[in-house]
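> Could you send the Transporter prediction when you get a chance?

Sure thing. Input:
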Amino acid sequence: MHQFHGAAARAAAAILLAACAASAQASCGAAFCSVNTDWTTEAAGLAEGSVFDLRYEHIRQDQPRAGSRRIAVGEIRHHHDEVETLNRNLVATYTRTFANGFGLSVSAPFTDREHLHIHNHRGAQIPEQWDFRKFGDLRVTGRYQRALGGSDAAPSTAGVILGLKLPTGSTRVANTGGDIAERTLQPGTGTTDLILGAVFHQQLPASGASWFAQAQVQRALNSHDEFRPGTQLTADVGYAHPLADKLDGIVQLNVVAKRRDRGAEAESADSGSRAVFLSPGLSYRVTDAVRVYGFVQQPLYQYVNGVQLTPDRAFVLGVSTRF
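Output:
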């Protein structure tokens, strides 16, 4: 058990993205963090058991961007000019790994979201706001993982992921004036999405460090009320190294690419993006079964279609327990 948690301390594992579809930049700015914090998929390897992970994300998107260029609010006039979206996400994930190498993860997000834009109507500038707290779309993901050839000093595992994002979140949230929010601002997309991915993890000899790589694609299988979210690809590489007896330093490089949304209710011209993030963090083992962690996610490159809100940085805090 202690050996398992020592390995877990040296990796910020990857797959599910904890129901956070990964810094999904949209015209309105609704987002989740792309930092990987599923502690079982790679660090635990083939060890049987359950893990419950609870993480908090804070993402303030208040920088309008056109292409890769920062712009001022209203510099490129639209029907409505995006001003700010504040995302405070709480994501709970339960993962069960079986002795035969198979595993199952269920992840549920709860979003506290505030959004402000300016509606340009016949020469008038009318502020419109939304402020809601809602559950989002549930994710159910299966995994098969196996050990690869290698020495006992440098064990490695690889796995594949197959799952679904389910349409459990609302798509009809309105403000106090009765105006329904843009589809990309809603807590749910209304679609069932296919999730496919692959993951690799290796323990490094002598140093006690480890590294991982992961790629995942999410694609909507249907449309809902004339809206279909764009296909999204994420790729992550991470390295972890022990700093003290119970403390580990972790750094990740997260890449996210999202195609344009489609449908009559989509804002296709102002959707779709590409981004690269650097995510340094710390993990501390409180007990053999419990650890806490934190990350700061800093954008290195951001490119958006049309005009969209983007963040200057994001923060993640979480706790993970094995039982």
